[in-house]
């Protein structure tokens, strides 16, 4: 690729924003025959260089859609309605598909959910990893294979396995290969969508340790999408709790887990057992998440909230209860409890 | 568990016929009457003794001609496992994938045949059950599967799904009795009022509600034991906790015994009375749940507990991350099967297959360093 000429769509000056990537009031909707699904509503967060952020919530809360919006990999019926995705001085929300192709994998890569099972079964694993390198770096297959071998070393798979087919690798090794693929073009930001969900506890620990090590060594920024709050507590610096497409609480993991303020965060944390504390029955949250085709007015969590008041039908403001700790709940008007 | 584990010797493997048939001399000598008369003694519902479940590897035609002299090879899914299930308890069988926990559960239901050792149900050896006795036994032991989306028939109503075990086993004599029992099972599974759910189809229910239907289908026969094979692995956190609560409730109120098979030790810790930790076809540690978790003695259990994530970022604990992965159950390492990955292994571990060491109370661990 001889892309020395600047594309006219590219804004020459650098936009000012926080961190490496800042998402501001991102709203993404899906069009169905019955209407528009409110998948992501006014979501904001930012990640600094070398920082890791967890995006957590129950299934259907919009965490994966938020990540796919960043890479603009939404399905045909999905649309970024408003908001900005500021990455390294560029607004990705305004980028064309051609412009995005230069960002994907080279700047931002993703470990997709269950992708270790989506490797092509009839192509050698190493060749599949070399493919994005050849495409993005424009180098020969031979050179790309050299890089692939280095990547195998980096993620802890023996170089001898480069020409193995996916079925010859175990689940943990396939997941390592997916991480190698995400790192293939030296991105600045990696998004991991449930990277350890289908794995055994011990393999999960190995993979999380690997991600942690790579983050330190390569100074990567990392966005972890997980339904498992425990995994987020152990691996991330900051966290965002989502419910029904909205951010209900965000802050450092210490803020979220040691001083949770939103009723949903509090109940969700209690749903996870802590094996080092006194044994007690884990609690569950009554009711079901709302239908996002027709979300409830005001706070999305209010129909299930045990601290609901009359004002919950109005949209709650987001309060900064302590520096860097944001809570979207009417209760915060009365101060931190 | 009291019976010591014997070292694996090649002979016992060869004695097993290729399809793992039962000992013919014993087969059929326990009839349905014996089963009806049998009682639980000392609270022990199941006594699993030195159980082995081996699956023969079928080599292709060419390989079998060329390597004819080669010994028949087996996947040793369950290899000398002994434990007891007490009436009215939740026993958790915990381990990583491929450790043999599901095979153990399935063998207890006679969905797999034991190739060695035996399981005593109320003191009666299961390998000696006659065909009729086996049919009776099937009413006494039920199973709940992992995936409630694929394990129930989408074309049947909830009533039909839950009533089917009654019909198949010819348990009820009248339509009215059948309906009463279905309504009872469905409401005990937490779908209340039952009438509102009976004539719905599975697609109208959420994942958690479907799993409740599966539980109702298992409890409708009023079994002695239910094998719950990863019943919550595919459910969202909040729903998961509801199902766990339901299991505890059914144990307390209906006296159902559960064999809870899970890969997640923290969930086992939440609801089980006792925990058995399996590794590569062997139980490495068994005991009272709180005792095992607070005071794990086997290096594998210690490592497993150390890597369980907890929702507390300030609790910085040391993680014992084992290198590599569980070996292939065809070529089990010599001596202690855990020694290649064990952080505490000594030279003797390579040769000695560790017996169960009594730690105290109900607590046993299979490690020679504990002697």
Looking at this protein, list some descriptive labels:
heterodimer; A: 337 residues; alpha/beta; Rossmann fold; eight-stranded mixed sheet; 9 helices; globular; B: 371 residues; four-stranded antiparallel sheet; 13 helices; 12 strands; disordered N terminus
How would you describe this structure to a colleague?
The complex is a heterodimer of chains A (337) and B (371). By secondary structure, chain A is of the alpha/beta class. Chain A has a domain at 21-107 and 187-334: Rossmann fold (3-Layer(aba) Sandwich), CATH 3.40.50. Helices cover 28% and strands 23% of the residues of chain A. Chain A has nine helices and twelve strands. In chain A, the strands form two sheets. Chain A has an eight-stranded mixed sheet with strand order 6-7-8-3-9-10-12-11, with helices on both faces. In chain A, strands 2-1-4-5 form a four-stranded antiparallel sheet. In chain A, a hairpin with a 2-residue loop joins β9 (238-243) and β10 (246-252). The longest helix of chain A has 18 residues, at 201-218. The termini of chain A are far apart. Chain B is an alpha/beta fold and 371 residues long. Chain B has one domain (10-63, 71-370): P-loop containing nucleotide triphosphate hydrolases (Rossmann fold, 3-Layer(aba) Sandwich). Chain B contains 13 helices and twelve strands. Chain B has helices spanning 10-15, 32-37, 61-66, 101-108, 131-140, 158-168, 175-188, 195-198, 207-219, 237-254, 265-271, 289-294, 299-306; strands spanning 44-56, 74-86, 90-94, 116-121, 124-125, 141-144, 225-229, 257-262, 274-279, 282-288, 357-360, 363-365. An eight-stranded mixed sheet of chain B has the order 6-7-8-3-9-10-12-11, with helices on both faces. In chain B, β11 and β12 form a beta hairpin. In chain B, α6 crosses α7 (175-188), α6 (158-168) runs parallel beside α9 (207-219) and α9 (207-219) packs parallel to α10 (237-254). The model of chain B is unreliable at 1-23 (pLDDT under 50). Classes of the chains: A alpha/beta (337), B alpha/beta (371). Chain A binds chain B through residues 58-59, 170, 172, 200-206, 209, 227-231, 233-234, 253-254, 257-258, 268-269, 271-276, 279, 281-285, 288, and chain B through 96-97, 206, 236-242, 244-245, 248, 263-267, 269-271, 289-290, 293, 303-305, 307-315, 317, 319, 321-322, 325.
